[in-house]
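Late entry, evening session. Most of the bench is empty. Finally got around to the prediction I had been postponing all week. Sequence below, unchanged from the version circulated by S.P.
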Amino acid sequence: MSKKLLLVEDDEIIAFLHRHFAEKCGFEVLDTVDNGKAAIEDAHKYKPDAVLMDIRINGEMDGIETALKIREFSDTPIIFLTGNSDENTLSRAQQAGSIGYLVKPVKHADLCAMLAQFTS
């Protein structure tokens, strides 16, 4: 039985690549959304085994604020994707209950290893 993943990414090309990577790692991508509101709704609806969340997404909330909202009702592992690895961003991600983060561009092997580590 494959693990189920929610992908939150606002760049269509990157979303396509991450979906492909996750599927090659044995994950079923339940949905790909580009904003916090849809991510929260999907987390409620699908109850994924993990969430792969970009920090900069469309809408009023960034990925960190979205993760905090998901944390109010779920302990699903959240892995952040970011092009910004500055100390402030990473600190905010840790405070939001992130179990890890990957700096873009993400390599297939790194994504598989991170997902496997926290969803076994």
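Two things to note before I forget:
The chain has one domain: 3-119.
The beta strands are 3-8, 27-33, 50-54, 78-82, 100-103.
Will write this up properly tomorrow.
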